[in-house]
Amino acid sequence: MAKSSEESDSIMEENSDWSADDAASSSGLTVASLATGLCYDIRMRYHCEVRPTADVHPEDPRRIYYIYKEICRAGLVEDPEIAASSKPLAPHPLQRIDVRDATEEEVQLVHTDEHFKFVESTRNLPDETLILLEESRDSIYFNRLTFASALLSAGGAIETCLAVATRKVKNAIAVIRPPGHHAEHDKTMGFCLFNNVSIAAKVCQRQLGEMCRKIMIIDWDVHHGNGIQKAFYDDPNVLYISIHVYADGKFYPGGKEGNWDYVGEGAGIGKNLNIPWPSQGMGDGDYMFAFQQLIMPIATEFDPDLVIVASGFDAAAGDELGGCFVTPACYAHMTHMLMTLANGKVAVCLEGGYNFRSISKSALAVTKTLMGEPPARLTATTASNPAVQIVRRVMAAQSKYWRCMYPKAPAQEGLFTDRFHDVIRQYQAKQLYDSYKLTSLWIYRATISKSFENQVLASPNYDKAVPLIVIFHDPPEMMGIHHPITNKLEPHNCWMADVVKEYIGWAIQNNYAIVDVNIPKHLTVDTGIGRYEEEDGDRPTQTEELAGYLWDNYLEPNEATHIFFIGIGDAFYGVANLLINRDSIYQRINSVISFVAENPVRAVASPTQTWLSRWYKDNSLVFVSHVHGLWHNTENRRKPSKRYGRLLQSPKTGLNEMLMHHKTEVCGWIETRVNTRGSSEEGDEDAVEAESKEAV
Amino acid sequence: MAKSSEESDSIMEENSDWSADDAASSSGLTVASLATGLCYDIRMRYHCEVRPTADVHPEDPRRIYYIYKEICRAGLVEDPEIAASSKPLAPHPLQRIDVRDATEEEVQLVHTDEHFKFVESTRNLPDETLILLEESRDSIYFNRLTFASALLSAGGAIETCLAVATRKVKNAIAVIRPPGHHAEHDKTMGFCLFNNVSIAAKVCQRQLGEMCRKIMIIDWDVHHGNGIQKAFYDDPNVLYISIHVYADGKFYPGGKEGNWDYVGEGAGIGKNLNIPWPSQGMGDGDYMFAFQQLIMPIATEFDPDLVIVASGFDAAAGDELGGCFVTPACYAHMTHMLMTLANGKVAVCLEGGYNFRSISKSALAVTKTLMGEPPARLTATTASNPAVQIVRRVMAAQSKYWRCMYPKAPAQEGLFTDRFHDVIRQYQAKQLYDSYKLTSLWIYRATISKSFENQVLASPNYDKAVPLIVIFHDPPEMMGIHHPITNKLEPHNCWMADVVKEYIGWAIQNNYAIVDVNIPKHLTVDTGIGRYEEEDGDRPTQTEELAGYLWDNYLEPNEATHIFFIGIGDAFYGVANLLINRDSIYQRINSVISFVAENPVRAVASPTQTWLSRWYKDNSLVFVSHVHGLWHNTENRRKPSKRYGRLLQSPKTGLNEMLMHHKTEVCGWIETRVNTRGSSEEGDEDAVEAESKEAV
């Protein structure tokens, strides 16, 4: 660093003020010197099925015992009966937090009086009644000690959170059951009676006031914590984050409440955050992606006074109900990240998790992390595409409420009225008219989607006795660079790629006729602005209908000497189906050229036209991107069926790149065929095979 | 969770296999039981200026002493001479790591033989020669103990990294000097002689082999670590991440090497990551944003065997050279995040930092975090816009190399040839012709940018004796939803908002004439695809030229009964300058309506046309978005000057929203003026003032 005397002067001045005497105001490690807390009590095992069968209930009383035992055997706690050695192996063992009964008043911070009374009533009911109750309610069982266990579980959560919030311990884990996160204000649900975590959060808020005003509850149980969400849905001081399997509302507890668009309401809007996995099977990479990109930035911005983890371990690898693959190392990483918040005040409370080994290993990893052990390394951290997609969708939705979230979702939706496929097509029409005098063919719209208006352009000689090239293509590719902050697109930062016009130019130059058909990816006008739309499911049928209509009205009746079909992308579907479903059309067609990047390679074959697939194999060029699954599927190692045509591996990836790369090849093939007498002979194919690698 | 007997069976089966006996294989806290290491030696203070002046050099020998003293006084180390009490306050005090001389062979892992020999030679030079050397080199001083100190500093870094990598300590901090990260293979630079961190990394790789193959070096010194970047630029096993002030290459060490597009080369491509702050003044929110969104995801994916921090504390609040505002709490957070990596193997080595208080407090916070103390809470975590912009730019650049980075930058650049402002304008021209018979006015292009082709459209009666409305507007707004994974834009997911056409429709219906002028934001064709482009700087001049051209050729000579100018967005600039620079034009104009969302409100006044601003105040409507700075600037509390026209606060934010909202108002105002005899009277303004709030 170049030193200027002015800079140095001010540094010296600044530094001359400094004396080590005013340093070191806070000495020692005030928090790290405290122990991690552990809450466990054998009496929470008393809640169990009155009449156990071979069909053991997954919410098995032994769950908490095995976790506790695992922690003892790792030498983290002093319990001579279980610990491997009577002396713990950790220099600073876990500190016991005693459970107690939650009071009626505490439970009623979340639950109705009726609900409390109902659970209380079960302690005096005969076995038969208890079994009947089990059948009339959603996923719960009772015995006469259920009430007692539920009170202890809630009380354990309360004491654990209070001990952490008041810094009696550094942080803590509560190995408690029955779980709580599904229990709603007025009902038991999903193995849950009282909502332990919600009750504990409300007690901390009430009892500690400003010192514990903002609470973040992070729920990584594989199921959505509907009860917690409901308890704080309009509370601006409780940020509830749940990461769970949603599966379109079909995964327990079901319904739409677990979806990403449930963001809180009233004063609590933006303080509810669901990350709804589209399916089971999620793993470390997915959870890490969600934590790093979404959960931690928002949590840091929220800046809670206390973090409570509703810690189900049923997303753990090995849990069959959850069907996910989160490793103990990943639980450790998530815990470690949370420990940056609230000056380390993290209280972990057990919720679900049904595989003894998985929950024990996971809980041990979490406990060690709380005690200061660094997380083990993760072997795989790649997020899957479905996970990235949903996390980024949640980010966009939450960007409205959190300054740290980008990109900001676009606003002013009502103003955006013109879809770009129309804008582009009009531009193309004008360009193609100006350059080549292509004009629109009239489409009778009653039978064909009106989205095809303007989509079929033809050169003036389309019905003359010249070679005719019919191109079915997907819309041009767009590229747009969003403003990095506002996320706006601006016309001068957006671009279009449209290589088809190069082909049209070549054809016109050769005096061939052209029919250019653009197949929009959405065929009907709708108003779903603001979310990414998938392709229209109805497109193939509509495309086929259009192809048939064109054939009947404009192609079949004309005098073309040769007809070539070029199908680009998924728009080829229409061509393929025309060949398959219209008898003998193929005899009128010279050949078919098709480009396939991502979509499936279409078979052209028909039970009623036995020669079709042979004809197709002999009279087609099918360029398939080298990254296409076709080339990597071991089942295709054998020579592919002739129904797929003459398959050629393209060294390029995208449709436009492929079109550009193979233009000379395609044009040469067409010119050779035009110049060869007859159309069904194999002609001169050497030119083609020299350049592209044919599948064998 | 609804229990099906099938599920329960498999759980039972799974769980019956489980016995606690095979659990707890790894007992105790193997890493957390180790101490944090501290490397410090008083002999590194011997390197100092031979002839100190009042002008003290910022790289002051006392730097390391004050840091060490601060750590002692916090009770974290046993040193009876300095520690507050003879017994450390931490239950597990810091463990000493002894420095040693780096060997010649070790230094030469990074530096040339000549370079080593040169530094060695300084130990025998007379004072005068040493001072001369100082003047001939970039920011460095020498004395006869410089070489000894530099060897100890490099040796300290080596021993510290080895101790961490071989798990002799949990993690460590090395309080060493002279610093190293600017030193290149063949030169001293920026207070640095030997590149301590680079040497240590190479020694670890060589000495520990596979156990320490992948090393991440994170450099949060406020200056770019050019020496480290160079040492590993083609090394795939060393990920170098530097977060520093860049200021367009004007901040030390200067040049382009610190920019985001230096991503490594050869096998090391993608393993160099620069986060170049555009200016000083960055703070906690900016650093947290970079860490959370960019650094930690990539670091996690890299999965290093060892993390070395090139830890300058000159981005700390209080450091005048750095000019940034990072707090000790933020350094603690960054350290805590890094501790998730490499199973906690983090070695922090001091680089720059020149304010004694700032570096001591920062180093103490880092040390406490390494020892297990949770980071203090951050009061502010909002990233500034410039920071977000650069971080997101780096993310896009790095998305090519890291699976975890989204959005992926668009590929296939060469194919994207058509800019959308052309596509859109052609569409608009077609629409406006079809609906209202607007056609293009011929623009003589030699004097005016050819980007204005097609941008001026007029109704057939533009030269007739009717009221004429001339609209200058920015291009329509676009909205596009990227595919969440591929980041592609597709035409059916992109939309356009264009409210101007509503105004044109109204005018045509009233039989008024219309001239519609679209001002593209880029006036010349260029090929800067792939990065977000700012508006063209030349635009105002070109717009003014166009406005003058239109006035001379199409507006002034015609017979319009009334001329109204509407200026929308920044396109209004052309109108304002026309009024200012052309004498007496304003007398021909009935009035001006302007809409301002983000850009400055333009003054219309001229020293040569004294009545202009009065006229403007009386004959204008200037709608300014309610979020515009104008309304929030205290200097504007007093009545704004009449040169800004009649200012009206709009309740809307964006231009299109404002246009929509005030349409009735604007149309009413124009109609009233058309129906009132004479154009300079104030007319009936009540209708306007009833709806919008005029500035007072």
TrEMBL record, chains A, B:
Query: What is a single cellular component term in the Gene Ontology annotation?
Result: histone deacetylase complex
Name the Pfam families on file.
Arb2-like, Hist_deacetyl
Report the catalytic activity.
N(6)-acetyl-L-lysyl-[histone] + H2O = L-lysyl-[histone] + acetate
Q: Which UniProt keywords apply?
A: Chromatin regulator, Hydrolase, Nucleus, Repressor, Transcription, Transcription regulation
Question: What family name appears in the similarity comment?
Answer: Belongs to the histone deacetylase family. HD type 2 subfamily.
Function, as annotated, reads: Responsible for the deacetylation of lysine residues on the N-terminal part of the core histones (H2A, H2B, H3 and H4). Histone deacetylation gives a tag for epigenetic repression and plays an important role in transcriptional regulation, cell cycle progression and developmental events.
What name has this protein been given in UniProt?
Histone deacetylase
Species source reads: Talaromyces proteolyticus
